[in-house]
Design goal:
about 160 residues; alpha+beta; four-stranded mixed β-sheet; 7 helices; about 45% helix
């Protein structure tokens, strides 16, 4: 099928177009489209929709045995809740070490990003294998704990944890 679509193109365009299409599809599904768009004046999203998404995502994260910690930083970390129509969800997930957990986490990130894309949720989402990544963010930035199995975040970042 793709051969027929690209058969009339020069060889350089036949190489460029599939790369462009695949890059665009990846960007839409695996990046933060609504996080970027929320800076436009026309964007508004009901904070209750973000709260609902975060509540459901939190419940799902808490059921994952291969996730030890999950937090919100940014405005939710600072204020403890979604604060405005232009807020986003800055979610950071920490998975247990191991190749299988790495694979699980990456597929789960795609799932969460796709869910956020189709429900118009500005989700700024990253995953790490070590909570020390939190020390790379602003030292005065608050942290709202979603999951903290062994209280490692609470103990290590007690001065930044909300509530």
């Amino acid at each position: 099928m793709l051969f027929i679509f690209f058969s009339g193109l020069t060889w350089s365009l036949a190489i460029f177009y599939p790369l462009f299409v695949s890059h665009t599809i990846n960007w839409i599904f695996n990046t933060h489209l609504w996080v970027c768009i929320r800076y436009m004046k026309i964007y508004k999203r009901d904070p209750d929709a973000l709260r609902s998404f975060l509540k459901k995502a939190s419940s799902k994260l808490n059921s994952k045995a291969w996730v030890d910690e999950a937090v919100c930083i940014g405005s939710i970390g600072d204020k403890g809740d979604v604060s405005s129509w232009r807020s986003d969800i800055d979610l950071r997930i920490f998975f247990k070490p191991g190749f299988i957990n790495f694979i699980r986490m990456n597929f789960y990130l795609i799932y969460l990003r796709t869910w956020a894309l189709f429900t118009i949720i500005p989700l700024d989402l990253y995953a790490y294998d070590d909570i020390e990544y939190l020390s790379r963010f602003k030292s005065n930035e608050g942290i709202k704990i979603i999951k903290d199995v062994n209280n490692r975040i609470k103990n290590r970042f007690s001065d930044r944890v909300m509530g």
